[in-house]
From TrEMBL:
Transmembrane segments: none annotated. GO terms for biological process: negative regulation of DNA-templated transcription. PROSITE patterns: HTH_CROC1. Residues 22-78 form the HTH cro/C1-type domain. This is Unannotated protein.
Amino acid sequence: MSQSDEDLNEPSPFSRMVGERLRSIRQQKNLSLSDVELQSHEQFKASVLGAYERGERAISVPRLEKLAKFYGVTIDQLLPRDPMRVEDNQPGASAPTKLRIDVAKLSMRDGLEFKMLERFLRMIQVQRQDFNGKVITVRAHDTRAIAVMLDIPIDQVGPRLAALDLLFVPPTTQS
């Protein structure tokens, strides 16, 4: 067997990431592998879909398109979110799960990035019906959007907001 044939037998990191994404979406839809097979009228066999999800078998673009249609999502939602992602056990693998941002301080700042960030946070407040107005806690998925606004890597959002003195620090009580 040649080296290239051996490579075909080894699951690629990308196939594994695609598989993780496929499994995640299937589970979000509360479907088992058998459910997918039945509901797709055996268009997607449970054993084959399982192999895709484990990264043991590469999925073709036409099959990916059919699977996206079956799940009711776009093809890009079946692909890994960040092809350059760091493995979960390495430093910098994920953004902080929650950041508390001082919206009152933010509203006093000038500059396009601050105004854009303030509008984004106000939108979150409206969605959550949270009209406290002074502090908002953003979740990990919101941190991605903030990273884009600040033009920095996701794992730098917390330190950057801290450097800008925009993270909320509760006042200490004196006894």
